[in-house]
Each structure stands twice: as structure tokens, then as C-alpha cells.
Automatic annotation (TrEMBL):
Residues 1-19 have a biased composition (Basic residues). Residues 1-23 are annotated as: Disordered. InterPro entries: SMKR1. The lineage of its organism: Eukaryota, Metazoa, Chordata, Craniata, Vertebrata. This is Small lysine rich protein 1.
Length: 65
């Protein structure tokens, strides 16, 4: 039987968090990605974080069914 005492956690080591690099949402790569995932202008703006009051919240993950 294992001895009782402190348990070792296997999580990420805590330290300084790295800042995320600033991403250009108008770059050619971003535009190509947006071309494939957005269905209209409203989708485009919502996916880029420009939501309007009363907009439905985005659902994450796959739908079952």
C-alpha cells in the first residue's frame, strides 16, 4: 500500500504566463480561414468577436444527433 502523505500533482508547472502574440485578423491566412467558416457578414463579425446586443451566444463543440 502506498504511504500516506503529500500527493504529487501532474499538472502544468506554475510560472510566468506567456502573453499571446497579437494576431492580425486581416492577414491573408485569416481571410482564407474566414472564407471557409463564415456563411455571411453577420457570421464573419460574430466569429471575429464583434457581437451585437441580443445576439445568440455561440455554441461550442459538436452537436449530438
Amino acid at each position: 500500500m502506498p504511504a500516506k502523505g503529500k500527493k504529487k500533482s501532474r499538472g502544468k508547472p506554475r510560472g510566468k504566463k506567456q502573453k499571446k502574440p497579437e494576431v492580425d485578423i486581416l492577414s491573408p491566412a485569416a481571410m482564407l480561414n474566414l472564407y471557409y467558416i463564415a456563411h455571411n457578414v453577420a457570421d464573419c463579425l460574430q466569429l471575429r468577436g464583434f457581437r451585437w446586443p441580443g445576439a445568440a451566444k455561440a455554441k461550442k463543440g459538436r452537436r449530438k444527433g
